[in-house]
Each structure stands twice: as C-alpha cells, then as structure tokens.
Write a structure and sequence with these properties.
The complex is a heterodimer of chains A (about 120) and B (about 450).
Chain A: E1 2-6, H1 7-10, E2 11-18, E3 21-28, H2 34-40, H3 43-49, E4 57-63, E5 68-74, H4 95-99, E6 102-106
Antiparallel strand pairs in A: 1-6, 2-3, 3-5, 4-5
Chain B: E1 4-10, H1 20-29, E2 34-38, H2 43-55, H3 64-68, H4 70-79, E3 82-85, H5 92-106, E4 113-117, H6 127-131, E5 134-137, E6 146-151, H7 156-163, E7 168-171, H8 178-188, H9 195-208, E8 237-240, E9 246-249, H10 260-267, E10 277-278, E11 283-285, E12 290-295, E13 298-302, E14 305-307, E15 312-332, H11 336-354, E16 361-365, E17 387-396, H12 399-410, H13 412-415, E18 421-439, E19 446-450
Parallel strand pairs in B: 1-2, 2-3, 3-7, 4-7
Antiparallel strand pairs in B: 1-8, 4-19, 5-18, 6-15, 8-9, 9-13, 10-11, 11-14, 12-13, 15-17, 15-18, 16-17
Helix pairs in contact in B: 1-4, 7-8, 8-9, 11-12
Classes of the chains: A alpha+beta (about 120), B alpha+beta (about 450).
C-alpha cells in the first residue's frame, strides 16, 4: 500500500543562481527517505516541472552521504538577474515548484517530519 | 594551536547593519585568533562602484561600509578581532582612507589597514580579448563599452596582509570564500598546496559568505521548517581547527537555528558540480563531506577534499545593459480579473502600434507574480482573485522606448478600464554581465598598508 505526500513533507530545498543557471538543493529530512526521493525526483521529473521555462539541460548530482541532491538547470532564468524581465530574476522562489511534486511512499516508510504531528496533505491509496 | 573563530556579519550589501553586534560580542568572549568577515559585493555592485569612482576618485567603495562598520569598529579594535571585508569594491584604498576617518570620528586608536587591489583587468584586456575568454553571459563583442572587468583573487594576499599585522583588510573582488580562507592560511600557516586543508577553508568561507543563510535565514517554512526568533536571527560563526574540521554555530541569545538542514542547504548553495567547485586557491570536492549535529545550534562539517587550483581565474565583466521599465496598476473588487485582462489587452495594443518591436512582459500580482514567463499571454479567465495588480515590464537600449510602455500604463488611469488604481512606474539603468576565464598572469594582487601597527 502506498500513499501520496507532497515532497515538501519529506524534503527541504533552496535555490541559487549563477547567471542564467539555477541550482536547486534538495535535502531529505530523514536520510532513510533518500532512495525514495532518488527514484522519484529524477532530473527528468524536475525538467517536467520546469517545462514552462524551457530548460536546455537538467543534471542531478547525488550526495548520498548528505542524503541530498543538487540539481543544475540551464537557461531557466530568462537571462538571469541582470537580464530577466520577471520579478524573480534570481529564481529564489523556484524551490517551491519542486517541493510541490507528489511522492508515492509506502505506508510503512520512515516517519515524516516531526513524527507526523501535523496532518499529511495527501491521500492514502 | 587552538581553534580559529571566524564570524560573518554580512552576506550581501543590503544585509542588516546590526548583525555584527552579537557576533562581535561572541568573538570577544572567545580565546584564540578571531576574525569578522563582510561579503557585500554582488556581481553588479562592483560595476556601480566603478561608475561612481569615475565621477569621484575618492569614492567607488561599497556604500555598505558606511552603515556596517561603525557599529563594530571600536569593539573589534579593542578586542583584537580582525576585520576582513570586500567593502573596497572598485577602490579599496579609498575604503581604507574612509575607515581611518571613521576611527578618528569614533575616537578609537588608528587601525592598521591593508587595502588589496589588482583584481581590475579592464585596462589590461580589450573588449575583444575579454570576449574571446567569455564562458557565459552577455555577448561582449557587441558591447559599446566595458564598465568593469574584475578577476576573483584568492586568499593569499589576505593572508599576507594579516601576516603584516593588519587590523582590517579591505579588498576589491576576491572569491567570497577567500574572506575566510585568508585568515585560516594566516593563522595555521597551511602550505599553499595542502589541498585538503585549503578545501576545508574554502568550505568554511562558502558556509559563511551568505551570512544568516546558514543560521535559519532563507529557510523558514512555518509548519515544515520552523525557525525560532527569526527577527533577531544570529549570524554565523565558524570554529575551525588545524585539521580543517569546521563547527558552524551562532551567538548565544540570538534567534535562528543551525542544524543539519540549514548547513546542507548552504553547503550546496550556488554549486554546480559538487565534486569540483572551482575557487582561485583550490578545487573543492564536496562529495565526501559529512555533516553532524553535535549540540544545540552546533554542526560539525568535515571531509572536504581538495585538488590543485584551476589554471585560470574567473572574472566578471559588466557592460551597459540599457534600461528596464516597470509599471504597475491595480484592479480590485467584483469582476477585477476581467478588468485587468482588458487593461493588459489595451496596453499591448497601444505598445504594438507605437513600438512593434518592444517585448512586453505582464505579470498578474495576486494570481501569478513570479512564475509566469515573458512570452506567455495574459490569461486571467477563471482567476478567483478579486484584487489583481498588473505589472508590466520591458527593456530597451534607450530610455525613451521603455518610457513608452510606462506612459501607456499610466494613461490607463483615464483611458483604461473602470477602477484602475495606484500606478507606480520606474525606469532603471541596467548592467549586463558576462563571466570569463582569465590566465593567472593577469592577476597582480597588491597589498598596501595604511597607518601603523598597534
């Protein structure tokens, strides 16, 4: 039996910029979730989430010792902070695009953050 | 030797001017070599300072110096806390003179100040020579004028300045991490080819260089990642031992949090390949780094590995980027989305008639403020929001073209849909930037000492 949770429930993220390139750090709250996130939050899945920004390349670097991943997305900032017409030329808001990805976890998967004190915004299937 | 303590009181020029107080208080109570660093030079900041220096040869340093240094200067001098800062921007010597004035005004002893320059290569390489070394960013071959071109210098000149007894080191463009590696080279006498230790020092600097981003800033997400006392978040202190083991912590009594997540997020922040983070002094490999919570707000970071420094140095080159025009107007209440939709159409039609080539972006604040795309049509059908602020933006080589968009938005007051309110308009000169890789022979760091040793 699996259930669906939002990635935000089991991972933490931040984005940074270098010119027109975005890096997105994704860290599992519980290192035991690393294989689940590795299997489901692939470079291809992140590229889909960013499709409207037309990334020319998405690479995922794995950091198993840190239970973390570094995604590097090329050409998603409309030229970057010195060239974009948008309000968020740095891409600082974009970690939350990825944190909205639904993740399927098994019902006996490791506990979510804070021992599941809060309701999980997902459905049991 | 005992541990070295390095605090960070600014992660960018707009950072809090009172951040340094608790960090200095904490450093003053510690024993061992203690340093306080300030990182205040974003890519474009230096170009703005260069423009200012052209107007006035006594200026061209970071204006952040004026509000950040006075609150800590007296206490740092009294306690023997050395200050390392890139306030120098386009004119480190002028920054040093300004600090001398500050000390006089505060009535404290005259500090011994090192000014480090030699990062400016605008006079050494032509626009074409820079263009041939470009790796990304704006096309330099078409630039009318190079406004600034600066190498990222490494930590050695900072260490030399401290070796000579400087109380304060002000630099122009150096790698941000060098602001911490320099003091560590000085304190521990690490050889310039001890790559693993240089890597550890670079990692310490990388963790510190964004200030509160490692202590709970840019992190809080209520209900998911709660941060106590964010309004008084403590800025970080790194305790580094001779082997290169780092403990990240923050001053007692401050808000914020230092834990596994804050430290890992910042370890990888703005990194490309984690096995090869290129710094001027070393190539840092993060793949064997371990992060462990060893106490409340104390996280140990170990396992940085290094490889020989890259053969080239990165430089940032800034050129004129034309003008960015932005204007906003609000529609609220029943049918707001339809009125905003109509306003967007009116402005598009008017601009298309007057200046067909002007590329206009429209965001609908209240519906989608940052996740739209410039080439997306405005589509507010079905929008539930009843308070929408339209934001229009365009860029142009000359001010007049962008002004046409701003005029058309303002004209909506009398000639647009009902209830259009609160127009604000702004025209901003822009700088465009590119990155280049430059041979090391063009780096000629120079350390100039002002004043006298205490």
């Amino acid at each position: 039996m699996t259930r669906s949770v939002r990635l935000q429930e089991i991972a933490s993220a931040r984005t940074g910029d270098k010119g027109n390139r975005l890096n997105l750090v994704l860290v599992c709250r519980d290192p035991a979730h690393y294989p689940i996130v590795a299997a489901q939050v692939t470079a291809e899945r992140v590229a889909e989430v960013f499709a409207a920004r037309k990334p020319t390349r998405v690479v995922r670097y794995n950091l198993p010792r840190l239970a973390a991943f570094n995604f590097v997305l090329d050409d998603v900032l409309e030229g970057g902070v010195n060239a974009s017409l948008g309000l968020d030329g740095h891409g600082k808001s974009l970690s939350f695009l990825v944190l909205d990805i639904p993740i399927e976890i098994t019902a006996d998967a490791p506990r979510l953050h804070d021992g599941e004190k809060r309701s999980i915004r997902g459905t049991v299937s | 030797m005992a541990k070295v303590f390095i605090g960070a009181a600014a992660g960018f020029a707009g950072d809090r001017s009172d951040a340094g107080g608790p960090v200095v208080a904490s450093l003053a109570a510690a024993s061992g070599p203690r340093f306080l660093m300030y990182e205040t030079l974003a890519e474009r900041t230096l170009a703005l300072c260069q423009l200012e220096r052209r107007q006035n040869p006594l200026r061209g340093y970071s204006p952040a110096l004026e509000r950040m240094l006075p609150p800590v200067l007296a206490r740092c001098l009294a306690a023997g806390i050395k200050i390392i800062a890139n306030f120098g921007a386009a004119n480190p010597t002028a920054a040093a003179r300004r600090i001398e004035e500050m000390a006089r005004a505060l009535g404290v002893r005259p500090p011994y100040i090192a000014a480090i320059d030699g990062d400016d290569i605008a006079g050494k390489l032509s626009a074409n020579e820079l263009a041939s070394r470009r790796i990304d960013g704006v096309d330099l071959s078409r630039a009318r004028e190079i406004i600034s071109a600066n190498l990222y210098l490494g930590a050695q000149p900072i260490a030399q300045a401290l070796d000579q007894g400087a109380d304060i080191v002000v630099t122009g463009r150096v790698a941000d991490s060098a602001l911490a590696l320099g003091p560590l080279l000085h304190a521990f006498r690490w050889p310039a080819d001890d790559w693993d230790r240089l890597a550890a020092g670079t990692l310490a600097g990388h963790l510190l260089e964004c200030g509160a981003q490692v202590t709970g800033g840019y992190f809080a997400d209520p209900g998911y990642k709660d941060v106590p006392g964010l309004a008084e978040v403590g800025y970080p202190i790194a305790e580094v031992d001779e082997t290169g083991e780092i403990v990240i912590t923050k001053p007692a009594g401050t808000g914020g949090v230092v834990d596994r997540l804050t430290v890992i997020e910042q370890t990888l922040y703005e990194i490309h390949d984690p096995s090869a983070y290129l710094a001027p002094d070393v190539v840092l490999d993060l793949t064997a780094v371990d992060v462990a919570e060893i106490g409340k707000d104390r996280v140990r970071v170990s396992g940085a590995r290094g490889r020989p420094a890259p053969e080239t140095l990165k430089a940032t080159v800034c050129v004129d980027g034309g003008f960015l025009g932005e204007a906003e107007i609000s529609y609220a209440g029943p049918n707001a989305a339809a009125r905003a939709q109509l306003a967007a159409g009116v402005v598009r039609a008017r601009v298309r008639k007057r200046l067909p080539n002007l590329n206009v972006r429209i965001d609908s604040i209240g519906v989608r403020s940052v996740w739209g795309a410039t080439d997306s049509p405005t589509d507010l059908r079905g929008a539930q929001a009843n308070d929408i602020r339209l934001r229009f933006a365009a860029e142009s080589a000359n001010a007049a073209d962008a002004e046409i968009l701003l005029d058309e938005v303002e004209a909506l007051y009398c000639a647009g849909p009902a209830g259009g309110a609160g127009v604000r308009r702004r025209l901003t000169p822009r700088l465009a930037s590119a990155s280049c890789l430059i041979e090391r022979r063009f780096a000629q760091p120079r350390v100039t000492m002002l004043g006298a040793p205490a």
